[in-house]
Structures are given as C-alpha cells and as structure tokens.
C-alpha cells in the first residue's frame, strides 16, 4: 500500500505539480475554459441561468479532466515513451492512472474553487443536495477518466489524440444541455442530446437543486443511465486498455 | 527453466499492421544473465522489438522468453520488479528538471520520497550532472538530457537493465564517460544494450547478438563470432601498391575505399612481410566486429529492410 501511494504520488507530480510549479501560466487555461461558458450563458440569459451555468461548469471541469487525461497520457506515452518506462517497473496500471487522474483534478482545483464560491453564493445547496452534486460530478469524472485512459492506450499519434480529446469534450460537455435546461433545445434535437451521459448529469444536478422539475421516475432513470455508462466505461478500461502493447 | 540465463525460444513477433512481415522470426538463443549483452543490427533488424518483449512492454506473437527462469508473459509482475528500461526514443519531459525526472521514476519504483531525492542527487552526480540537477530539461543539451534518462536507471535497484541505443546523440567524450558508468554498472547487474555503434558493442559487451531482418544471424563473444568466419585476420592496405598473391583469402574493397584482405594468421604474416618489403602502408589486425557484422549481414542478404 505504501508503494502504491508512492507510485500515485509520482504520477501526480509528473502530470500536474511539476508543470504547475515550473510553468504556472498553464493554470490560467484550466480556470478560463469552464468559466468562459458560464459567463456567456449568464450574460445571454441576463442572469436567469446562472445556477445551471455554475453546475454546467462543474460538469465540464470534471469531464474535461478525464479528456485531458487522454491527451496527456497519450503525449507522455508517444512523445516521451514514459509509459514504456513505467510498464518496465513495479508500478501497476491502477496506480499510474489514479495518479495521473488526480493530477488532472489538481489542475482543475482553481476552477473548481471559483465554481464552489459561485455555487455557495448563487445556488446555496443544502448538505443532501451537495452530496448529490458531488456524486454526479465524481461519476462524470470516473467515466471520462476511464474513457480517456482506454483511448490513450490505443493512440499512437499525439496530434490525432489531442484533436480527438477536444472533439469528445465538445460533443459531450459543450453541446449537450449541461449549462442550461434541456427544454431550451428544440424537440427533435432533444433526443440526440439524450445520447450523451452529460445530459443526464446535467438533469440530475439541475433537478437536485430545484432549477428544473423532474418526476421521480425521470430522476431514477437519469441516475441509472449515468451509473450504467460509468460502470461500462470502467469495465472497458479494465478489460480493453493496453498496458503492454500487442 | 534455467536460472542465471536469458533464454529465447522460437520468439516471433508479427505486428498487426505489418502485412505479415516478421519483426522477429523464430529467434532462439541462451546467454548468461550477467555482464553486458549487446544487440546490434541495422534499422528494422528487430532489436527494439526484442528489447520491448524482454522488458515486458510488448507481447510476442509466438515463442517464449525467460530471464532467470521467469517467463516474460506469465511472470511479468516478478520481472518488472527487477527490470528498468530506457526506450529508444525516450525523452526527458521539458517541464521537469533532471532531479525531478529521476526522483519521480524512483517513486514509481516504490522508493520513499526522501530516499528518492537522495538517490537522484547521487545518480546525477555520478553521471556528471551535479551542476544541472535543478535546471529545466528543456534548457539542457541533447546529450545531457540523455544522461539524465540514464541516471534514472542507474539510480534504481533494478538488476536487469535495458538500454535501447543509450549513446545515440552523445558527443565522443560523453559517450566514453557513459561507457565507464555502464561498465561499472555491469559489475553487479545485467545490461541488455542495443546500439548502432559496433565499436560500442565490441568495447562493452560480453556477448553480442547480431540481428538482421528479424533473424538472429550470430551470437557469442567476439572470439566466438570470429570463429564463424573462415578468415581471422584483416589487412587494410592504405597505399597504392601491387597486391601480393593471396593463396587462401578474400580480397575486398573496404567501405573506406581501402583494399582489405581477409585471411588466416600465417598467410597474414606472409603478406605483411611482402608489403613491408614493398614499403606499402598497411595495418594488420584480427577481424573486427565490423568485419564480422558485414560478413554475417551480407551472407543473409544485403540492404535495409526498413
């Protein structure tokens, strides 16, 4: 267990702490990216959707952490051959990925701190609502981390990998209704939005804090789908991700 | 299963996108798992593929390999506790310093933070980077970056070390310094080293394996490899002169443009005497690894398969 902790620490240091320490400018991007949409939605809705936008910012931060993980792991694997060096060591894939994923969260901490302050001011969730939001955001993070790790182990080209990472982030975290209620989307397109797990995360978050009204059945369904997708992504990561190349 | 040996049996690798071309074609050998084992060959010969399989980074298509009786597939976990590897195209991460590079690697190997810091400083000093431990890697020269990577494996407790072309890009002095470090390292550990520099293999290795187009075309120490050739001596004639008659030997044009005669010991002395009488400039030596390499590679077909 001690060794596992050290392995995790190594990944955290390499994937976030050292870069933040040596290149502090990278922090600006992680703060600005989720907050920019929040600002736009808040201005366009004249402040009416600030609650949804704050929750959307959280969801996007968590989802983007997983997607950034895909790009970063791919970069470290293909450009620096780091994964090969780590494979030929006692480190387990779980320790490597856990540390790398925690590194992504550490990167997002400034943005998450700003969002938490905004949530405390504008949403003011109670304890139960806060726990529910936390569970949704963690599921979002776990699912995207699993997907990010799996994709990174298959990638052999960093340019393609970063392009893919940005595409997935846009399709799953920006286009679906995470920053605003799904009712703002015209009906035929609403069905397409339900193909994204982030839509369910947004619905649960908005419903738990009373920003939208959902029936108990709809909330149950949203949780079931979100859980199922996250578990499926984790299973795919465990079974299909390549630690040793074939 | 043999202990103290590195064993490959019918080891074969066909990459999925290679249209059936074998990167390794039924490679068989057994060498002691101590000292320095060097793999030489042209680009695409299969050196990196073999190293990646042995270092548990790549699955073979067929055959098996064991190190000290541990199978690289079924005993991968045990092997990974003992191996360390610097891959061929490994690079230092630009936003880290050499000390951070070595320290994080040691943490991945389960070493405690304080001990990792101490070992990192020692390993970097050993390789001559004591004044650059806290500079960002992106500010270092190519050779220094390479040395920082080598320091990672030097600092580890691993007793089986894979170095895929470790001296590529190093200046002659840095290369010499690294050779000294590797020789010292090999006193207690097993080094598997690939290189394009035949002189490096000749200088460092206890056993040399020659790969060509995925096949192992020669293996052994220098004397054993020499014994695969019909002729053991090489005369390199550097001046224009009429060549003496060669009874039993091979007269070739060396890649340098000089005339080379490969022959046995007694005839080599006879020819030398004749050349001395003519005042010709020449050198005589036992056949080098370069001679052996070109002979074995040409025997199995010329050209780079890349």
SSE topology:
The complex is a heterodimer of chains A (246) and B (306).
Chain A: H1 2-22, H2 26-44, H3 50-80, H4 82-87, H5 93-122, H6 127-154, H7 158-174, H8 187-193, H9 197-208, H10 216-240
Chain B: E1 5-14, E2 22-32, E3 35-41, H1 47-54, E4 62-67, E5 70-71, H2 76-82, E6 83-86, H3 98-108, H4 113-126, H5 142-155, E7 160-164, H6 172-185, E8 190-195, H7 198-204, E9 207-212, E10 215-220, H8 222-226, E11 233-237, E12 249-253, E13 259-263, H9 265-278, E14 282-286, H10 289-299
Parallel strand pairs in B: 3-8, 3-9, 6-7, 7-8
Antiparallel strand pairs in B: 1-2, 1-4, 4-5, 9-10, 11-13, 11-14, 12-13
Calculate Rg of chain B over CA atoms: 22 Å
Strand content of chain A: under 5%
Q: How far apart lie the N and C ends of chain A?
A: 29 Å
CATH class label of the largest domain in chain B: Alpha Beta
- Give me the secondary-structure category of chain B: alpha/beta
Q: How many structural units, i.e. domains of chain A?
A: 1
H/E topology pattern of chain B: EEEHEEHEHHHEHEHEEHEEEHEH
Total count of domains of chain B: 2
Shape of chain A: globular
| Basic shape of chain B | globular
CATH superfamily of the largest domain in chain B: P-loop containing nucleotide triphosphate hydrolases
What do you see in this structure?
The complex is a heterodimer of chains A (246) and B (306). Chain A is an all-alpha fold and 246 residues long. Chain A has one domain (2-240). In chain A, 80% of the residues lie in helices and 0% in strands. Chain A contains ten helices and no strands. Chain A has helices at 2-22, 26-44, 50-80, 82-87, 93-122, 127-154, 158-174, 187-193, 197-208, 216-240. In chain A, helix 6 runs parallel beside helix 10 (216-240). Chain A is globular. The two termini of chain A are 29 Å apart. By secondary structure, chain B is of the alpha/beta class. Chain B folds into two domains: 5-226, P-loop containing nucleotide triphosphate hydrolases (Rossmann fold, 3-Layer(aba) Sandwich), CATH 3.40.50; 233-286, no CATH class. Helix content of chain B is 34%, strand content 27%. Chain B is globular and about 70 Å long. The model of chain B has no long low-confidence stretch (mean pLDDT 90). The A-B interface holds A 2-3, 6-7, 9-11, 13-14, 18-19, 22-23, 76, 79-82, 84-91, 96, 244-246 and B 16, 52, 55-59, 76-77, 80-81, 83-93, 95-97, 100, 103-105, 107-113, 136, 152, 156, 158, 162.
């Amino acid at each position: 267990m001690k060794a596992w902790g050290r392995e995790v620490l190594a990944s955290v240091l390499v994937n976030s702490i050292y870069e933040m320490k040596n290149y502090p400018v990278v922090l600006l991007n992680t703060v600005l990216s989720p907050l920019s949409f929040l600002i736009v939605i808040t201005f366009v809705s004249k402040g009416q959707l600030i609650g949804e936008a704050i929750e959307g910012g959280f969801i996007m931060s968590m989802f983007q952490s997983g997607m950034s993980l895909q790009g970063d792991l791919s970069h470290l694997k293909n450009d620096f051959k780091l994964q090969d060096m780590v494979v030929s060591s006692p480190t387990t894939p779980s320790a490597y990925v856990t540390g790398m994923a925690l590194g992504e969260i550490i990167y997002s901490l400034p943005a998450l701190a700003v969002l938490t302050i905004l949530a405390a001011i504008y949403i003011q969730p109670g304890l139960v609502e806060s726990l529910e939001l936390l569970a949704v955001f963690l599921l979002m993070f776990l699912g995207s981390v699993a997907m990010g790790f799996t994709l990174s182990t298959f990638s052999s080209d960093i340019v393609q990998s970063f392009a893919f990472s940005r595409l997935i982030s846009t399709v799953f975290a920006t286009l679906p209704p995470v920053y605003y209620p799904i009712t703002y989307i015209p009906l035929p397109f609403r069905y397409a939005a339900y193909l994204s797990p982030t839509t369910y995360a947004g619905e649960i978050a908005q419903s738990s804090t009373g920003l939208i009204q959902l029936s108990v059945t709809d909330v149950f369904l949203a949780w079931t789908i979100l859980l199922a997708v996250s578990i499926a992504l984790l299973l795919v990561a465990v079974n299909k991700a390549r630690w040793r190349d074939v | 299963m043999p202990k103290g040996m590195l064993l490959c049996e019918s080891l074969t690798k066909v990459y999925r996108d290679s249209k059936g071309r074998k990167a390794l074609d039924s490679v068989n050998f057994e060498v002691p798992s101590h000292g320095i084992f060097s793999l030489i060959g042209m680009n695409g010969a299969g050196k990196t593929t073999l190293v990646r399989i042995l270092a548990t980074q790549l699955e073979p298509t067929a055959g098996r390999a064991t190190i000290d009786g541990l199978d690289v597939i079924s005993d991968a976990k045990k092997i990974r506790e003992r191996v360390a590897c610097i891959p061929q195209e490994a690079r230092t991460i630009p936003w880290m310093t050499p000390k951070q590079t070595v320290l994080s690697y040691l943490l991945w190997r389960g070493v405690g933070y304080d001990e990792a810091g101490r070992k990192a400083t020692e390993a970097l000093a050993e390789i001559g980077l004591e004044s650059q431990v806290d500079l960002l890697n992106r500010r270092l020269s190519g050779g220094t970056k390479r040395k920082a990577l080598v320091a990672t494996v030097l600092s580890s407790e691993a007793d089986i070390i894979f170095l895929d072309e470790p001296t590529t890009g190093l200046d002659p002095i840095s290369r010499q310094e690294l050779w000294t470090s590797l020789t010292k390292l090999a006193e207690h550990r097993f080094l598997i080293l690939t290189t394009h520099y035949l002189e490096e293999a000749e200088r460092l290795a206890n056993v040399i394996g020659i790969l060509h187009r995925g096949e192992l075309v020669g293996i052994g120490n220098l004397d054993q490899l020499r014994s695969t050739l019909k002729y053991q001596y090489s005369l390199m004639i550097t001046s224009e002169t009429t060549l003496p008659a060669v009874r039993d030997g091979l007269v070739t044009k060396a890649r340098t443009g000089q005339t080379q005669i490969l022959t046995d010991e007694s005839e080599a002395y006879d020819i030398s005497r004749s050349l001395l009488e003519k005042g010709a400039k020449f050198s005589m030596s036992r056949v080098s690894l370069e001679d052996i390499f070109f002979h074995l590679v040409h025997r199995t077909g010329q050209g780079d398969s890349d």
